[in-house]
Fold this sequence. Notes:
Distance between the termini: 54 Å
Number of helices: 14
Radius of gyration: 21 Å
CATH architecture of the largest domain: 3-Layer(aba) Sandwich
Bound molecules: zinc ion
Strand order of the largest sheet: 8-7-6-9-10-13-12
Low-confidence stretches: none
Amino acid sequence: MIKLDKKFGRVNYCHVCNSKKLSCVVKIGSTGLCDSLLTKKQLSKHSEKSYPLNLYRCKKCHLLQLDYIVNNKKVFHKKYPYKSGITKRLKELLFANSEYLFKNFKFSQKPLAIDIGSNDGTLLEGYRKKNFSVLGIEPTNIANLANQRGIKTIKRFFDLKTAKIIKNKFKKAEVITGTNIFAHVNKLNSFVKGVKMLLDEKKGLFVTESHYAVDIVDDLQYDSIYHEHLRFYLLKPLKVLMENYGFKVIDAVRIPNYAGSIRVIATLNHKIKSKPSVNKILNMEKKRGFYSEKKYKKFAKDIFKSRNQIIKLLKKLKNKSKSIVGIGCPGRSITLLAFCNINDKIFDYIAEQKSSLKLNLYTPNTHLKIIDEKNFFRQQPDYAFLLSWHYQKSIMKNLRKKGFKGKFIIPLPYPRIVN
Length: 419
Ligand SMILES: [Zn+2]
């Protein structure tokens, strides 16, 4: 069974299969936590904590993982600022989860859907519209927001203990979802056992959506390597993980979320037939070399090439006294900023929407101030550097509509300027 249940700090074995045959893919360095932004007071204190950020690969089951786990109470602290309903596009993507399930599977009357890491309850809103009873589980204060909106949410980390509490109060769930959370959990053993306890044995579907390692490597999304993401999944290690606990993977779909994710559906009922998509994706992974060392050597080389190009471009623009402002401050931006050492000598500041909980805070390591985007439209800097580059189309359209006249810089996979 999986050992990964209590340990913080260094991990020298595979999170999924326990193998010690790990090889280093890339060392990003040491960075602060991406959602522990700093107050002005903290800037002058010099008490900033950084943690190692290195990507390793299991040679046995092909899982990509970090070799260091930060205490999850530090990562998902009570003031964690992320709200999933914040962008319109993200809202659509979260609703797509219930749309897909509803279209492809059959459910009873008024079944229960549980979302783990439910944030502000946006995903469950989709299920509620489809006549499900819904229950969210969310450890941060954002749970209060969901409850205020009428999405019943328990403020706790999900593990076996939480599952026991739920089991006594609710019926078995026909859907349990974990979107972009399955990569975050450190108590993987307790987590999956908890899901098993709450899922209906006959009809229940366990639906995970994870940032997909194929897209991360293909598009050079090294900015998505940060401490919240302990693991990056191919379908293969996900299947190994599920089977370790008696689940059968019956469906897998590539979806556009977070610039490329994979939705995997598993069940405890082994009579349900797997869709052809499962084998199709496994074959693709193998054929394209994702189970071989060579692929990741090239990945690492390209990461440094991309970084050098970004640094070179920004230096060139600053030598010409151009003004540059970062747009948006998603979690992944912290890795990119730190890795390319983009500080306040390069960016004037980072602009965020008025509704963002990150306003007036500073990025760890690079100490860029995050301010209301109205300053950005007033100032009209020469360049807008898209830190949420994975939503580039809608962001550029939106900034133009609101009156931005300068140029855009899209950093990844390799930096380019768009007029
Ligand atoms: Zn492994």
